[in-house]
Sequence to fold (504 residues):
Amino acid sequence: MSSLSSHHTTRLRPLPTPSRANRRAAILRILGVLLMLFSCTQLPPLLIDLYYAEGAWRGFLLALLITLIVGLLTWLPVRGAREELKIRDGYLITALFWIVLGSFGSIPFLLVDTPHMSWVDALFESVSGISTTGATVLTGLDQLPRAVLYYRQQLQWFGGMGIIVLAVAIMPMLGIGGMQLYRAEMPGPLKEQKLSPRIAETAKTLWLLYCGLTLACALAYWAAGMSLFDAIGHSFSTIAIGGFSTHDASIGYFDSPLIELICMFFLVISGINFGLHFLAWRGRSVGHYLRDAECRSYLLLLSVVCLICTATLILHQHYEQPIQALRYAAFMVVSIATTTGFGLVDFSTWPTLLPHLLLYTTFIGACAGSTGGGMKVMRILLVLRQGIREFQRLLHPNGVFTVKLGRRQIPDRVVESVWGFCSIYLVTFVVLLLILLALGLDQLTAFSALASCMNNLGPALGEAASHYANLPDSAKLVLSLAMVLGRLEVFSLLILLSPAFWRF
Fold:
């Protein structure tokens, strides 16, 4: 009787949950595969250097081998691990991947002879590139090997849409589910939305759009007078909203209104939700842009700030001709407000409130689901709508009011998450600002550099107005952390500090 009872109990016992060791093995397997894939990105600059014979190919070859071997050694012991990813695994892999990728991306900068960089500067430049921030410690870009210049642009291009989204597209071949990675990586408060039923198809669709825009931008630059090398490099950083350039003078090097118009057009396009691009392309209509509340607000913001800057520059006679004021104001507003950071003129010398006005627009940034940085236009809209709702509740305590974007009612859960994000974002900003001040930076440099890096912009004010090379190494490390925090929208990285996260 007892044996029957024991047998019955065994049959009813629930299936065992995956062990912590198995989960770790699956995560290491993914990181190993992604590192091996990333090693392949060293091939294009290597081949470019062999073509131009500028002596940097050895550094890229060594970087390729190091990254490939480390990835292989990480993957081999756990290559048979098979576990379904949970949401928390997605956050962990995303954070680890960006940190590891930023670190391994710095290897070529360390190994090439020109430029000669310390490990802190190399890490800063790599993280700035992969996070599409565009802050740089390099000067004399016009004299650098073309392979190094191309590599910087390539880092931004891969970081723009997120290498993880690219990896998600091929995850089915690896036997790994990808929705958790997609939710952790994609920007914006409405991460559950998908363009197609399967996440792999979604990632492929996003990358097709991304590559198509990059190709169109490169051809437009080339037709406007850029060399093929410059056209490809600048198309990478334009569509990624990165801001790296192959010249010290950035877009100002070309002194071409046509190139500036092309750049502005593609920056504005890249700052719009890629989901809207997909809908517009599928429906062969621009009506989706006009009906989207976030897109309308985004375009209105750019227009209003442009008018303010133009009027102020004209009133203060900062430029000889009003048309110059319009030209420079329009370009710099689009470049800064979309968190790109391309330079045409030095906006830090503009009169009165303009430098700070442009810097503050980066806190808003571009649209959710775009390659831009900042807190995103949608979140700011929801915060404003929630503020209006609180006024209405004060006036009408018994009334029932909802938050809407266009005709769509936003669930309170989403509004609460936006409030939580904004509060954590600002608290994190204040903490990092105090750390930078403690490290010896003056108030203007500390505030502007942190705002620039955390919002993934690049240019700053004060001592960082032209480059970040003169800042202390400790400050560069803090700013590198700020770039990753901004790129992962704070929560995806800070959640790893929660003790509850590790209880699995």
